[in-house]
Amino acid sequence: MYDFNDFELTADDYDNAAKNGISKDNLDQRFSKYGWDKDRAITQPIRKPRKHEDDYQKALGLGTDIDYRLFALRRENDWSVEEAALTPRNGRRKQLDRYTVIAKENGIHPATYHARRKRGWTREKAATVSADKRYQSRFKEDNR
Fold first, then answer.
1. 99: closest CA among 111, 112, 113?
2. Residue 81: which pLDDT band, with cuts at 50, 70 and 90?
3. What is the largest CA-CA distance in the chain?
4. How far out from the chain centre does Cα 45 lie?
5. Is 0.85 surpassed by the pTM of this model?
6. Average pLDDT in the 62-90 region?
7. DSSP line for 3-23
8. Which of 3, 103, 114, 144 is 20 to 30 A off residue 18, Cα-Cα?
9. How far is 125 from 113, CA to CA, in rounded Å?
10. Helices in 1-144 by DSSP H: which ranges?
11. Does some domain include residue 34?
12. pLDDT digits (tens, 9 = 90+) for 9-55
């Protein structure tokens, strides 16, 4: 059976939400507009800010026209703030990861490098640890 208080926010609900870092406006929006149940609206934390937001704000000050997603991808690949902000977009995302070039120089196929990254290897380790030679005879050398 439903309680009437489940369909209306009370002063205690606003106080509990404030203790959890949720503003009155945010609580109202979650409960009324999005249809969240009262407990979820009061207790679910606010989403964390974007990881590179501060750097992106600096980049905007430099006059960049790069969107946040590309900027963050570049920063994840160890680009400086200035380089990530001011290097023009060229449409070739494969060039964003410098370690693929290092991997090729070390004789590591790009597919091997990316498979290692998906398994949680660091960029440097994935690009520098030589590939197991036992399996190379099964595949033709890719000269791309």
1. 113
2. confident
3. 72
4. 18
5. no
6. 84
7. -GGGGS--HHHHHHHHHTT--
8. 3
9. 9
10. 11-19, 24-28, 38-43, 53-61, 68-76, 81-86, 98-105, 110-118, 123-128
11. yes
12. 889 999 999 998 899 999 999 998 889 989 999 999 887 777 888 88
Domain shared by 22 and 39, yes or no: yes
Query: Hey, CA dihedral for 60, 62, 65, 67, is it positive or negative?
Result: negative
47 to each of 21, 84, 87, 91, how far by Cα in Å?
11, 25, 30, 30
> In sequence order, what are the residues at sequence separation of 6 or more whose Cβ sits closer than 8 angstroms to the Cβ of residue 42?
13, 16, 17, 20, 22, 27
Contacts of residue 43, Cβ cutoff 8 Å, sequence gap at least 6: 16, 20
Task: Give the total number of structural domains in the chain.
Answer: 3
Q: Which two tokens stand for residue 106?
A: 């070390």
Is 77 inside any structural domain?
Answer: yes
Query: Which domain range does residue 74 map to?
Result: 53-93
